[in-house]
Amino acid sequence: MKVRTETPVPYHVAKPLSADDERWMREALALARDAQARGEVPVGAVVVCDGKIVGRGGNAPIERNDPTAHAEITALRAAAAALGNYRLPACDLYVTLEPCAMCAGAVMHTRLSRLVFGARDPKTGACGSVIDLFAEHRLNHHTSVTGEVLAAECGALLSAFFAARRAET
Ligand code: ZN
Predict the structure, then answer these.
(1) With contact defined as beta carbons under 8 Å apart, do 21 and 116 qualify?
(2) pTM for the complete prediction?
(3) From ligand 1's centre to the CA of 39, what distance in Å?
(4) Which letter does DSSP use for residue 86 in this model?
(5) Is 98 known to be catalytic?
(6) Which one is catalytic: 72, 98, 136, 148?
(7) Residue pLDDT, tens place only, 71-109
(8) Pairing relation of β-strands 114-119 and 91-97?
(9) Is 25 in contact with 149 (CB distance < 8 Å)?
(10) d(CA 27, CA 169)
(11) Most CB within 10 Å of its CB: which of 43, 75, 117, 146?
């Protein structure tokens, strides 16, 4: 997969607002590497609340026979269980790849404060690359979006994974 990094930045995608953005994205990257070691597409996510990780997720649809087992969904479920709430308005989600439409929808249902993603996904990205659900003001959402944090590092992991898989076949 070719990961674009030169995509024009949509109006709502700001540069990193928090000095901790790269720190949390590195935690998500570690989970992406774990997913890769399990033979999954390397995507990882963490949910952060009050300066602490309250949910972790690595991409696992193959292992779990579950098409919804994306890193974001797994991390949001873990965070909601840990905090005992199905809404997480004080939490931020960090994910190494731009969320798909399913995960963007889950972010909206969770009412997160902030979504921070790494590499853009020109095939399924729902934060501006294919469609932009967060620019759709008819949808009720409360989440601000920051894109392309450690984008090169997040994208390189994916590119290397797909290059290796192509070489196997
Ligand atoms: Zn997804």
Answers:
(1) yes
(2) 0.90
(3) 17
(4) S
(5) no
(6) 72
(7) 999 999 999 999 999 999 999 999 999 999 999 999 999
(8) parallel
(9) yes
(10) 31
(11) 43
